[in-house]
Amino acid sequence: MLAFPPDITFYIQLGSFFLLLFILNRLLFVPYAELLAEREARTEGASQGAVADRAHADELAAKINAELSIARTLAAEEAETIRVATRADEAKIFAAAQADATAKLTRLRGEIAKETASARDSLRGDAQALATEMTNAILGGGRG
């Protein structure tokens, strides 16, 4: 039981307790607390680093998207310029082909007109000769 004033064993136990508390505090509790604090700092630092990396990645993505948008706009403008130039070239080629076809058609019509006139003249002469022969045959045959 507890006696008042406490005897020497109480002071020895009290001294042993504080000595053990001091030793455990130095060897176990303080290093463990430091370890936990360091771990928390690393975790927090990693979280902040991840947030910073994510922000940086978002900035890069926005920059890339902006550059892609500009590149698409420039490509569309270039494609339209090429389309306009191609249409102009196409119109020139078509006009040249049309002029060439018109010239050939005019030349062929002229040749056909000459051949037609020549054939008509030839046929007129042949028709006159045939008509004369028929007339002579009919008139000559009726007298004979």
Compose a concise summary of this entry.
With 144 residues, the chain is mostly helical. The chain has one helix and no strands.
Query: Helical residue percent?
Result: over 70%
Number of strands: 0
Derived structural class = mainly alpha
Global Rg:
59 Å
Q: Report the average pLDDT across residues.
A: 90
Which residues form runs of ≥5 with pLDDT under 50? none
Distance between the termini: 187 Å
Order of helices and strands: H
Count every helix, treating DSSP H or I runs of 4 or more residues as helices.
1
Beta content = under 5%
Give a short account of the largest sheet: none
Shape: rod-shaped
List the keywords:
144 residues
Protein model, in words:
With 144 residues, the chain is mainly alpha-helical. 94% of the residues lie in helices and 0% in strands. It has one helix and no strands. It has one helix spanning 8-143. The longest helix has 136 residues, at 8-143. It starts with 7 loop residues before the first helix and ends with a helix. The model has no long low-confidence stretch (mean pLDDT 90).
Compile the SSE list and pairings.
Blueprint: H1 8-143
